[in-house]
Structure formats: structure tokens, C-alpha cells
TrEMBL record:
<feature type="region of interest" description="Disordered">
    <location>
        <begin position="378"/>
        <end position="413"/>
    </location>
</feature>
<dbReference type="InterPro" id="IPR023606">
    <property type="entry name" value="CoA-Trfase_III_dom_1_sf"/>
</dbReference>
<protein>
    <submittedName>
        <fullName>Succinyl-CoA:(R)-benzylsuccinate CoA-transferase subunit BbsF</fullName>
        <ecNumber>2.8.3.15</ecNumber>
    </submittedName>
</protein>
<dbReference type="InterPro" id="IPR050483">
    <property type="entry name" value="CoA-transferase_III_domain"/>
</dbReference>
<dbReference type="InterPro" id="IPR044855">
    <property type="entry name" value="CoA-Trfase_III_dom3_sf"/>
</dbReference>
<dbReference type="GO" id="GO:0033877">
    <property type="term" value="F:succinyl-CoA:(R)-benzylsuccinate CoA-transferase activity"/>
</dbReference>
<keyword id="KW-0808">Transferase</keyword>
<dbReference type="Pfam" id="PF02515">
    <property type="entry name" value="CoA_transf_3"/>
</dbReference>
<dbReference type="InterPro" id="IPR003673">
    <property type="entry name" value="CoA-Trfase_fam_III"/>
</dbReference>
Length: 413
């Protein structure tokens, strides 16, 4: 399965980035849409996997319509953010012809990823049990909002999960309303869990030849990602609440006002606090019984806040960040996103990459993308294909490279 990628006819024709990726030779049939699934498959595609994105006719992935903002061609930046290095095929799964084409794709794939409402793939005859009987080596990854049991009927939207999963209860000002995170963080975490599960299952298949079902859900992923807050409840029965930008167990570990804009201080130990006290011109703070240890500082965080904000009002956030970092104290201004990318560039870290269109037109329009976050010394991430137009590769995939010049009845773009 998934080995004859460049053979004429059939499901061949994957673009070769010119060097091997860690996941070269891996074929993924991607039936997912919106964020969690597409983010997972994009990460795997960056590492060399050949991802075929299956989309419904006319509309495709929901996020194609989620704009503004959009690029200069009117394509949703939301869609662009999680769909590079993929080929798009339009299949109508409400027809027998579309289902037969889907089965053909799956037969030549190593991994299937889907995030339909639980039960949908089974009704289509594409459920795990049925496919396992035909393809025992297939890795089948199913992503849901609340699992396939009692929560199967609950729609899996990130905002809903942030609310019912407790994240909003610990996010926001202590005297204000619960607040969601500024991005669909639960979807992103779930996508990471999905990609990890897929890689673990592939490792098992390498050893045994056996595929398996990988299941992740948004609620379970969030509860795991709540880490210390969730552990506070599980171990000590503590139900945490909102603290603004403060930390329940460390102080000062929050944002504080300066002469111009907020400064983030992440003082994780007594040595760092002593250095902070020295830099702000009050070295005696480290010897004050109220602030001598972290536990003391947590107990007296209000008094510490008053003292530090008075000291920090003498200069702006950029000044304090520079002198504090020089003294070994973790600190930085609250940047806007443009400033964050500029900061990454200053540090020599990958931030934004430009993916050109392929010379043969297969690559679609050029696209500016956020860089893959993992660095591998031998098999680095590759940027082979910009995000595809809807159905852009349908003819190529259904009929093979030799038929690329002929229009497909299924192509929508």
C-alpha cells in the first residue's frame, strides 16, 4: 500500500521535492476538513507524506469559505494555513461512483484520516471495521469532538470544547467573563495528538505488519493539555479559576505594566528573582521574608505586584526586556503578531516561507506560509506544494499523470 506513487495510471504522480523526507513513501487519504485533521495531515505532509485531500463537490473544505481575510486571489487564509503539500481530489461520496473512487484511493494508502460525525463513515461503508477486513495493514485515524459513545451526537466545535472542557473557566480576568483562547487551540492540540498517534501506529505496523484504529477527540485532548490545572483537580481536588495572566503556583509569572506597554515576567526560581530585584534597583526584595521563596511570593503576590509595577514604571517594556534578559531573567514585551515574526527572524528562527508555483502548474498559485516547527537534521521539512485549488488534482489522481491534459468531470477548480 502507498508505494507506487509515481507510476503512470492509478493514484500516482506525487510531486518530488528533490530530496527524501522522513515520511517519503507514505500515502495518506485525508477525508478530514476544517482544522484538527488538516493540521495533522499537513504536518505529516511537510515531512514527506503524500497527502490526498478528499473534498466534496462545489464547496470543498468548509474553511475555503471562511473569509475575510483572504489572499490576493480571494482564497481564505484559514484554509491556506493548514493545507499545503497536499493534492485535492473532489469525490461525491453520496454516489456509488464516488465511493468506488474513495475505496480505490484507500486501497493504495497507508493511512486514512477522517473527522466526520461518528457513524458517518460506517454509513458510507468506509468505517474502520469494514476496511480492516479488506486492508488489515491500514492505519485508520478517527477524530471526533466528544468520542464515539454517548457524546457522538455533540458537534465538535473548538469554542464549544473550550467552554465545556474547562479552558474558558481558567482564562480571562479574575473579575471578568470567561474568555476563549485567541486561536482554536483545542483543534491544534488534537491535530498534534492525531499525528503522534498515527506515527506510533506506523511504528507498530513496521514491527508487526498490522494496522490499527487511532482515535482522538477534542475533549480528551483538552483535558490532557490542561496539565497542571487538571492535575490540581485530579490529585488535590482543587477547582482552579481565572487569574488573568497570573500563575497559580509561581510568582511573579504574569504580565506587568511598564511606562508604555505590558511586560511578561516568567520568574521560575529564587535565583531569577534575586536577579530581577537587582535589575529593578531593589536587591533587598530577595531577602524580604515575604518574597524569599517562591511559595512566599505566591502568598504575597499582591504586595509584590505593587512594588514591581512601581519600579517598572520608570521605563518601557523593551528596555526592561533587554536588561532583564541580559541578567538571566525571562522577560519580554507583549508583541503583536507582526512583532512576533520579526522577533523570530531576529533570532534566526524560521518564521515565514514562500512556496513557488510548480513549473508544470501542478503546484497552483504561489503561497506564503508559516514554517514547519520541527527541525530535522537529516530529513528536514519540505515545502513542495502550495495549498491546492478545489479539485485541482482530481484528473491527475483519478486518471493518472498521462491524462493530466484532459479535463475531469469532477474538477471544480
Amino acid at each position: 500500500m502507498g508505494t507506487q506513487y509515481n507510476a503512470p495510471g492509478g493514484w500516482g504522480g506525487a510531486v518530488d521535492g528533490g530530496r527524501r523526507g522522513a515520511l517519503d513513501g507514505l500515502r495518506i487519504a485525508d477525508f478530514s476538513r476544517v482544522l484538527a485533521g488538516p493540521y495533522a495531515t499537513m504536518l505529516l505532509a511537510d515531512l514527506g507524506a503524500d497527502v490526498v485531500k478528499v473534498e466534496r463537490p462545489e464547496t470543498g473544505d468548509d474553511t475555503r469559505a471562511w473569509h475575510p481575510p483572504a489572499d490576493h486571489d480571494g482564497t481564505s487564509t484559514y484554509f491556506l494555513s493548514v493545507n499545503r503539500n497536499k493534492r485535492s481530489v473532489v469525490l461525491d461520496l453520496t454516489t456509488e461512483a464516488g465511493l468506488e473512487q474513495a475505496r480505490a484511493l484507500i486501497a493504495e494508502s497507508d493511512v486514512l484520516v477522517e473527522n466526520f460525525r461518528p457513524g458517518t463513515m460506517e454509513r458510507l461503508g468506509l468505517g474502520h471495521e469494514e476496511l480492516r477486513a479488506r486492508h488489515p495493514e491500514l492505519i485508520y485515524c478517527s477524530i471526533s469532538g466528544f468520542g464515539s459513545g454517548a457524546g457522538a451526537a455533540i458537534p465538535g466545535y473548538d469554542l464549544l470544547v473550550q467552554a465545556v472542557g474547562g479552558l474558558m473557566s481558567v482564562t480571562g480576568d479574575v473579575h471578568g467573563e470567561p474568555v476563549k483562547a485567541g486561536v482554536a487551540l483545542v483543534d491544534v492540540i488534537t491535530g498534534l495528538h492525531a499525528s503522534l498517534g498515527i506515527l506510533a501506529a506506523l511504528r507498530h505496523r513496521d514491527a508487526t505488519g498490522e494496522g490499527q484504529l487511532v482515535e482522538v477527540n477534542l475533549l480528551g485532548s483538552l483535558l490532557s493539555a490542561m496539565v497542571n490545572q487538571a492535575s490540581a483537580f485530579a490529585v488535590a481536588g482543587v477547582v482552579p479559576g481565572r487569574m488573568g495572566n497570573a500563575h497559580p503556583s509561581i510568582a511573579p509569572y504574569e504580565t506587568l505594566p511598564t511606562a508604555d506597554r505590558p511586560l511578561a515576567l516568567a520568574v521560575g526560581n529564587d535565583r531569577q528573582f534575586a536577579a530581577l530585584a537587582e535589575v529593578v534597583g531593589d536587591p533587598g526584595l530577595a531577602l524580604d521574608d515575604r518574597f524569599r521563596t517562591n511559595s512566599d511570593r505566591v502568598a504575597h503576590r499582591a504586595e509584590l505586584w505593587d512594588i514591581l509595577t512601581e519600579r517598572l514604571s520608570a521605563a518601557g517594556a523593551d528596555h526592561w526586556a533587554a536588561v532583564l534578559l541580559a541578567a538571566g531573567v525571562p522577560a519580554g514585551p507583549v508583541n503583536t503578531l507582526d512583532e512576533a515574526f520579526a522577533f523570530a527572524q531576529k533570532l534566526g528562527l524560521p518564521g515565514i516561507v514562500d512556496i513557488p508555483a510548480a513549473a508544470d502548474g501542478e503546484g497552483g498559485r504561489p503561497s506564503r506560509q508559516v514554517a514547519h516547527p520541527i527541525t530535522l537534521s537529516g530529513t528536514p521539512a519540505q515545502y513542495r506544494l502550495p495549498p491546492p485549488g478545489l479539485g485541482q488534482h482530481t484528473a491527475q489522481i483519478l486518471h493518472g499523470p498521462s491524462d493530466l491534459s484532459e479535463p475531469s468531470d469532477h474538477a471544480s477548480a
